[in-house]
Amino acid sequence: MHRTIKLSMFALLAAPAFAQDPVLKVPIRNITRLHGAMNNTITAIGLVTGLNKTGSGDRATRQAAANFIRRYNLNVTEADLTSGSVALVSVSAELPPFAHIGRTLDVQVKALGDAISLEGGYLEQVDLAYYDGPNSKVYAVAAGIVSTGGYAAQGVTASVARNNPTSGRVTGGGRVVEPLSPELLSEAGDLQLVLLHPSLRTAHNIVAGINRVLGDGGVRAFVQDEALVRITLPLDKRDRISILRSLGLIRDIKVAVEHPQKVIVHLDTGTIIAGAGVQISPCVVAMSDLTISVISEQDVSQPAPGIQNPGTTERVDRTLIDVTIQDRDPVALGGGGATVGELLENLKSLQLSPRQLIEVFKWLDRGGYLHAPLEVQ
Fold this sequence. Notes:
Blueprint: E1 2-14, E2 25-27, E3 32-34, E4 40-49, H1 59-70, E5 87-95, E6 104-111, E7 122-130, E8 137-145, E9 151-154, E10 159-162, E11 167-176, E12 191-195, H2 200-214, E13 220-225, E14 228-232, H3 240-251, E15 254-256, E16 263-266, E17 271-274, E18 283-301, E19 314-327, E20 331-333, H4 340-348, H5 354-367, E21 374-376
């Protein structure tokens, strides 16, 4: 048995640096949404039938199946139903704003019991409602064949599964039966745009763009806060047709956006994402790799030949521990890392693995040399 433990140690020295962010312009529609216009999750509890011995056998599923059958005037009990062909599931869909009757929706289906797989089963028709206790309202109905993108099979002593076969989709299986049309104007009579990523700089750029393009027509935009832009319309342009026309013009205006200045690190995959405005103070990085190898082996011990040396042949465990320290020359990180390209060029000189780069970012942040929020996931 061979076990290896590898540790890295860093030393940092730093000084300040500054740089200019590149400019990127995008349409307002890509970075905002209309206040009050959002997706709403509608849900239900339903049954998936037609499963080939991969359904549930729990009491709740049999009870739900019996209740479903009784709706068709057939008198059955839980004991009359066999397990494996039906699964009790939760059903959900995202209802978008301005959804009209007849619009189709993709539906998510997830097993609630001990089902093995929902693949190929049929979701019996259910009513999808926005849950609000006694005031819950049905907005869509759903039914159709479930596709999971995976599979599962099991026998007496073995089983195999791929992806998640107890969670699937019914593509286009939902159909809107109650329209959802939110109010376009706020109670104060304004249009309000919510920034998907709050930023005061971006909000001011949105306001400047709207006033530049539509200001001559009496439209005025104001920054409410870093997440909200308020737009006032002339009294003669507050009917629904005029509002939609103005909104269409506003959403096509391109404005400069503030780049996210942060570093995101995902520990499981070793992924590092750095925003274009990330800066690192010029510093020197010195690293040592400490490798500890533990090797366990079994030797055979035999007694010396001859009658005067009695004994038996035995297996003897031996453990060898090897410690190796590899020092690397200090590497200077300069230029401030003003752009993603410059940052990568700086870090490339370290010749580190993704895991080691993550540790470098952690120590840069801890020492105050990384001038951006570090988000570790």
